[in-house]
Amino acid sequence: MKLLSVNIGKPRRNPWKGLSATGIDKRPVDGPVAVSAPGPKGTGAVGLEGDRVYDVKHHGGSDQAVYAYAREDLDGWQTELDRPLANGVFGENLTTLGVDVNGALIGERWRIGSTVVLEVSCARIPCATFQGWLERDGWIKRFTQAALPGAYLRVIEPGTIRAGDPVEIVHRPGHDVTVALVFRAMTLEPDLLTQLLAADALPQEDRELVRRRTTA
């Protein structure tokens, strides 16, 4: 298991959400990249130095510090979409190889390289920016049906990472709440929502959403 690339966003205009900019246009970078906890959502800060988000209400902050997507899943989409998909094109900071990103457990911890430890926190939910960026009508619906969302991670131990670093799973919690399960529950299968509360590391924002939806 390893990092194929570390991807940093290049700001560009965002006509799909009415925002001044988006950081979804992420490109692989050479050399080491510093990783640290960004603090609460609302400032635009994320976990990788040189990157940021612009939709500060919905993105960024400690629970969405780093976004990972598997190269194997990109390859599957590449075949379906009949177009090349470069590392970073889904807006991911980390493009991985050999890591079961969607099967990762909430609270699972990955050591990347020699210093950085990240913890799986939640699933990515697709938005209008993602659909517009890929220039694919119906993309939100298709991405949701596939339930291959990729994982957001929080920073437990800061440091530096770079392309080629090994990825090691150093902790797996004692429940069965995966990234894919969170995504399915939050989107098309609300009957699964109560299962998510077994994951202590699920972000408080998501836990409150689960409670609202299951007690209404």
Description:
There is one protein chain. The protein is of the alpha+beta class. The chain is built from 5 helices and 12 strands. It has an 8-stranded mixed β-sheet. Strands 2-3 form a two-stranded antiparallel sheet. A hairpin with a 4-residue loop joins strand 2 (12-14) and strand 3 (19-22). The N and C termini lie far apart (42 Å). The mean pLDDT is 96.
List SSEs in N-to-C order. EEEEEEHEEEHHEEEHH
The SS-based structural class is: alpha+beta
Strand proportion, as a percent range, falls in: 25-35%
| Nearest-integer average pLDDT | 96
Q: What is the strand arrangement across the widest sheet?
A: 4-1-7-6-10-9-8-12
Helix percent reads 10-25%
Q: What characteristic shape results from the CA principal axes?
A: globular
Characterize the main sheet: 8 strands, mixed
Low-confidence stretches: none
Total number of β-strand segments?
12
Cα distance spanning the termini: 42 Å
Q: Please tally the helical runs, counting DSSP H or I stretches of 4 or more residues.
A: 5
Radius of gyration: 16 Å
In short:
The chain has helices at residues 71-81, 128-134, 139-146, 179-186, 204-215, and strands at residues 2-9, 12-14, 19-22, 26-28, 33-35, 66-70, 94-97, 109-112, 116-123, 151-157, 159-161, 167-171.
